[in-house]
Design brief:
about 425 residues, Growth Hormone, Chain: A, 2 strands
């Protein structure tokens, strides 16, 4: 028996009741407002994120290995919580309150970094921020999946990623303007980032809705186990985890840009360009994935990433940095939302949040060794070594995913004989 064969299709009945609800820009209420929430939270987050590695390196004098460790610990903390948050959401039959708590906690991390005078305080701020992300991610993804017809999953998740990333365009733009007009004041940017975060929390409270689970569904609340998922789900999560081991923190991309010659004040502009292209690419990529197949887009993304990281290893000009960041935005548009949409098609319907949590936790936990390896390679081998390693793991992921696709098609053909 092929371990990658799919046990059951995703039924349509769970979404059929949503066909008559009011649409917003052609999307269900929860998908639209979840996207709006992510837009404002990413404005808040991305006002800060591109400045954190520069703040640590240039103001606090922290070395690259420590920067990688800080980012890795923060992301791993979030990842540990994602699986439990997803399981808890399925267990209690509630999504909205966990989503609300997660966004509120992240917003409350902003004063910590605004007052930071040592790397330990920056780490604390990043931990609190990622704590909020860990709590909200799986319930939010389940809300989106449950509000969307199966045939439009890639479009819904790509819309969410597009809105999320459009916020990541506005955030660095605001940071850039503030830095230029207020003498590179990191602290002012950190304080003002609370405002869009608070708006996101208010939208959740007033606009996101959820239906109570039926008594029959409540009777089957899941235990925290992987036995609900077949070999295909587990193998895909393994591939995503291997890829994540080489996908070190974007902080290293920012540090690479500065090393090649991008002025500090222009770093938010480079990051803005990346996020703008990411945002503009996400929705067309989602539509293409629904039409031509999610697997093709995911495989293309793995191959593109391998080429990109090879480029970051070799780049020596400012122009090259701008081009690579633009292509990195294309990569993100091709993969981020579509991987979740693909996962939603192969998981049992009663365990959506649990599956999203397991996926996010596995990928996120890999960011700790990924960022630590990236920092150690940078400090003790060369900056290029960090990116050569990422290119190699992406190439391996592409090969494994190709094998999964071939194996799945072989299994389907065998069953039809």
């Amino acid at each position: 028996m092929n371990i990658l064969s799919r046990k059951q299709p995703l039924p349509m009945s769970r979404n059929s009741g949503m066909q008559g609800e009011r649409k917003y820009a052609g999307l269900s209420r929860n998908v639209f407002f979840s996207g709006l929430v992510s837009f404002f939270m990413d404005v808040s987050s991305e006002m800060i994120y591109p400045l954190v590695p520069l703040f640590l390196a240039n103001v606090l004098g922290v070395n690259k290995s420590m920067i990688g460790l800080i980012e890795g610990i923060a992301e791993a903390t979030a990842s540990l919580l994602k699986v439990f948050s997803g399981w808890l959401s399925d267990r209690i039959g509630r999504r909205k309150n966990l989503m609300l708590a997660g966004y509120a906690i992240s917003t409350l991390s902003r004063p910590i970094i605004a007052l930071a005078g040592a790397w330990q305080q920056v780490l604390a701020a990043r931990l609190v921020d990622r704590l909020g992300k860990g709590i909200r991610t799986a319930p939010r993804d389940a809300i989106i999946a449950e509000a969307t017809e199966t045939t439009h999953l890639a479009r819904a998740f790509s819309f969410h990623r597009s809105m999320d990333t459009m916020g990541a365009v506005i955030g660095p733009a605001i940071a850039l303007l503030l830095l230029q007009h207020h003498n590179n004041s990191y602290t002012l940017v950190f304080w003002l980032s609370m405002i869009p975060g608070a708006i996101a929390v208010l939208i959740i409270a007033g606009c996101i809705t959820e239906k109570k689970r039926s008594a029959a569904a409540a009777a089957q609340r899941p235990r925290l186990t992987l036995k609900h998922f077949d070999g295909k789900v587990k193998f895909f999560i393994l591939i995503a985890t291997i890829f994540a081991l080489g996908n070190s923190s974007d902080a290293f991309l920012i540090l690479r840009a500065e090393q090649v010659g991008i002025p500090t004040v222009m770093i938010p502009a480079v990051y803005l360009t990346f996020n703008l292209i990411y945002s503009l690419t996400a929705i067309p990529a989602g539509i293409a994935a629904d039409r031509f197949g999610k697997e093709r887009l995911i495989l293309l993304g793995f191959v593109l990433f391998a080429g990109l990281y090879y480029g970051f290893a070799r780049v020596s000009t400012s122009t090259g940095i701008w081009v690579l960041f633009g292509l990195y935005g294309v990569f993100m548009g091709l993969t981020e939302g579509i991987q979740k949409a693909f996962l939603a098609t192969i998981i049992p319907p009663d365990f959506k949040a649990t599956a999203f949590g397991v996926y996010a936790s596995a990928v996120g936990l890999a960011t700790l060794p990924a960022s630590l390896i990236g920092g150690l390679l940078w400090d003790h081998v060369s900056p290029s070594a960090t990116f050569y390693f990422g290119a190699a793991t992406a190439a391996l992921s592409a090969l494994l995913f190709s094998a999964m696709i071939v194996s799945d098609k072989t299994s389907v053909h065998s069953s039809l004989r």
